[in-house]
Amino acid sequence: MPLNDRAISARQAALAAAVALHGPVRLQPGVDREATIAAAELAARQTADVFAAYLAGTTRIHLTPGPVVDEATGTPAEPNEGENMQLNTGQKVTYTADTEDAAGYDTTETIEWSTNEPTIAVLTVSEDTRSCTVVSGEPGSAVLTARITSLGLEVTEAIDVVPAGTATIELVAGPVENEAAPGEGE
After folding, report:
1. H or E segment at 176?
2. pLDDT surpasses 80 at 82
3. Are 161 and 136 in contact (CB under 8 A)?
4. Beta bridge partner(s), residue 106
5. How far is residue 175's CA from residue 140's CA, in Å, rounded to a whole number?
6. CB atoms within 10 A of CB 142
7. What is the 3 state secondary structure string of 63-127?
8. Lower CB density within 10 Å: C or N end of the chain?
């Protein structure tokens, strides 16, 4: 996606601020020069991404579920067809949080993960906070929330845990039809 002038200015300002914050690269005797420079560049770029998100503003957070798998073996389960995520006891799913700025570029904020029912949906958050594994707990319904508090953004996902081997039925409403009055249509 092409950058507009405002986004280019924000990215340039973010990079300049990141370079100023990290300062010059200091090489030490006996330390690999290329590795030191690469590490310094990576640190400056990551800081610039955070600054750019602040300047341009992260505007969107989105959750993407991975496949549902057996908790013990990692074997994929049948695909989830419903509107809500449904796990059988003994299953897990990993969600990835994607964040973007107004120009559609990825941003790198820290994601805060939570559930309203920690005994139903047991969470394990990745070190970089970009993903969260939900392990089924006791049967019931829970809400998974991914939040960036400093920006006031959050997204939720409903998760239902049912005992393994339980059949579920999804009711789908058909079209509305007028009921014939008594004596009509005979």
Report:
1. none
2. no
3. yes
4. 100
5. 31
6. 25
7. EEECCCEECCCCCECCCCCCCCEEEECCEEEEEEEEEEECCCCECCCCCEEEECCCCCEEEEECC
8. C
pLDDT at residue 141 in the model? 94
Q: Residue written as tokens 């920690």? A: 118
Cβ(159)–Cβ(138) below 8 Å? no
Q: Give the integer Cα–Cα distance in Å for 74 and 93.
A: 10
The H or E element spanning position 17 is helix 5-22
Domains with residue ranges and CATH for the chain: 5-56 (no CATH), 59-162 (2.60.40.1080)
Contacts 24+ apart (CB under 8 A), 117-123: 117/141, 117/142, 117/143, 120/159, 120/161, 121/159, 121/161
How many percent of the chain have pLDDT more than 70? 83
CB under 8 A, 24+ apart: contacts of 23-30: none
What would the pLDDT profile of 99-151 be if each residue is shown by its tens digit? Answer: 887 667 777 788 999 999 999 999 999 999 999 999 999 999 999 999 988 77
Task: Identify residue 62 by its one-letter amino acid code.
Answer: H
Q: How far apart are CA 180 and CA 6, in angstroms?
A: 63
Tell me which amino acid residue 52 is.
A
Q: What does the DSSP 8-state code read for residue 179?
A: P
